[in-house]
């Protein structure tokens, strides 16, 4: 079934941010048209559609998203909805591999700012209902994760200050990358003082600039098999490996509180599926709902040993190459600005990660383009979470 290998032939997206004046259908249409124009594929050539969103029925009073998609595309093909973009993508991959369909639209859409008064409650219930009922905020678990990490690894004194500074460097790096991304919600650079100031004012370990924003936006990609890709005459990007794992919904009931077991297991599954090793992949899009999540994920993905990622981050930035340097090797993370600067429309966020990887692997990332040994990277990976590390997906993409 070699000809049924799933490949991505085009990607599209909107700018992330507050789109209160735009209806959801306009956002997803914009993302779809951008993707279809890239490979000259018309909607009548689609065999199926898979879309992801978390809150669209709540925020925009949509009863059945599949019907919404049918009206938008004027198609009656099979359509399904998932929560995360990675879940939609993998479902589409299975269908392509099985030979059931040859061309699929995978999309993500979220309009979170339409519900400012309730969205924070929704986010906390999504992450951990027990913390919500105890009076927790969407940021509470991130603070707890940081405290557990410090306790587990015995970090104190000067090292603790270096850790706090390393987390601030994550935000500075991602905003610098977001400044080069025309679709990013935040397109301005920030300084260490910008991050540290709000922390000090609030007397907290993490502050305003340590967290990703609430965002609206849409993303889309077109998935086909190799035969269709050759007919379209485009440079495809292959999905080399995939892994997924799940952990308890209640964060405080988990066996390990200083990192994400689900992310660790998903990475192992993706590496086994792809046949690659960790350092074959030096380009990553990581789900940084907070700076703490990006730091911990460097360990869960296998690039840093447990308790050491903050040191690698801290030591990477005196020279500020725009990447992490771990064991003398360059590791490029969140070149689009990550959720922190690019934005965080939940159902569409994973699509933005795929969008960035596709551009990087095909040499179309413009100012953000990574060069490894004088060429575009051959492989790239993405880590996407549902909830607060409750469910993890790792996708490894690459050129043939």
The gist of it:
This protein is of the alpha/beta class and 400 residues long. 41% of the residues lie in helices and 18% in strands.
Question: Layout of helices and strands, plus pairs?
Answer:
Elements: E1 6-13, H1 24-39, E2 48-52, H2 56-59, H3 65-73, E3 79-82, H4 85-97, E4 103-111, H5 119-127, H6 129-133, H7 140-153, H8 157-178, H9 192-202, E5 216-225, H10 226-232, E6 237-246, H11 261-274, E7 283-286, H12 291-300, H13 309-316, E8 324-326, E9 329-333, H14 338-342, H15 346-361, E10 379-386, E11 391-398
Parallel strand pairs: 2-3, 2-4, 7-9, 7-10
Antiparallel strand pairs: 1-5, 1-6, 4-5, 6-11, 8-9, 10-11
Question: Describe it for me?
Answer:
By secondary structure, this protein is an alpha/beta fold. It has a domain at 6-117 and 214-232: Thiolase/Chalcone synthase (Peroxisomal Thiolase, Chain A, domain 1, 3-Layer(aba) Sandwich), CATH 3.40.47. It is 41% helix and 18% strand. It has 15 helices and eleven strands. The chain has helices at residues 24-39, 56-59, 65-73, 85-97, 119-127, 129-133, 140-153, 157-178, 192-202, 226-232, 261-274, 291-300, 309-316, 338-342, 346-361, and strands spanning 6-13, 48-52, 79-82, 103-111, 216-225, 237-246, 283-286, 324-326, 329-333, 379-386, 391-398. An eleven-stranded mixed beta sheet has the order 3-2-4-5-1-6-11-10-7-9-8, with helices on both faces. A hairpin with a 4-residue loop joins strand 10 (379-386) and strand 11. Helix 8 (157-178) packs across helix 12 (291-300) and helix 8 crosses helix 13. The radius of gyration is 20 Å and the shape is globular.
């Amino acid at each position: 079934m070699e000809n049924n290998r799933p490949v991505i032939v085009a990607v599209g997206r909107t700018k992330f941010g507050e789109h209160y004046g735009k209806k959801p259908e306009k956002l997803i249409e914009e993302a779809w048209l951008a993707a279809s124009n890239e490979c000259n594929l018309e909607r009548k050539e689609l065999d199926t559609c898979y879309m992801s969103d978390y809150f669209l029925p709540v925020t925009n009073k949509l009863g059945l998203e599949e019907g919404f998609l049918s009206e938008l595309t004027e198609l009656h093909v099979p359509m399904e909805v998932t929560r995360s973009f990675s879940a939609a993508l993998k479902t589409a991959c299975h269908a392509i591999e099985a030979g059931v369909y040859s061309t699929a639209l995978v999309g993500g859409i979220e309009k979170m700012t339409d519900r400012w008064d309730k969205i924070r409650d929704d986010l906390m219930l999504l992450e951990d209902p027990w913390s919500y009922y105890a009076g927790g905020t969407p940021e509470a678990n991130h603070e707890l994760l940081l405290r557990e990490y410090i306790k587990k690894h015995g970090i104190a004194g000067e090292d603790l200050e270096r850790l706090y500074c390393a987390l601030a460097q994550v935000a500075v790096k991602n905003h610098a990358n977001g400044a080069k991304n025309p679709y990013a919600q935040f397109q301005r650079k920030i300084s260490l003082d910008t991050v540290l100031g709000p922390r000090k004012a609030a007397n907290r370990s993490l502050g305003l600039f340590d967290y990703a924003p609430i965002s609206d936006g849409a993303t889309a990609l077109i998935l086909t098999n190799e035969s269709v890709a050759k007919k379209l005459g485009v440079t495809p990007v292959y999905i080399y490996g995939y892994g997924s794992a799940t952990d308890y919904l209640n964060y405080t009931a988990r066996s390990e509180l200083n990192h994400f077991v689900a992310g660790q297991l998903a990475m192992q599954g993706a590496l086994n599926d792809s046949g690659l090793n960790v350092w074959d992949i030096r380009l990553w899009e990581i789900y940084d709902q907070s700076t703490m999540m990006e730091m911990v994920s460097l360990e869960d993905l296998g690039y840093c040993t447990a308790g050491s990622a903050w040191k690698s981050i801290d030591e990477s930035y005196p020279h500020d190459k725009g990447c992490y340097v771990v064991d003398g090797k360059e590791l490029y993370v969140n070149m689009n600005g990550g959720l922190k600067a690019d934005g965080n429309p939940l159902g569409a966020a994973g699509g933005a990660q795929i969008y960035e990887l596709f551009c990087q692997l095909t040499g179309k990332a413009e100012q953000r383009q990574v060069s490894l040994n004088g060429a575009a990277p051959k492989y790239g990976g993405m880590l996407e979470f549902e909830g607060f590390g409750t469910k993890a997906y790792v996708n490894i993409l690459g050129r043939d």
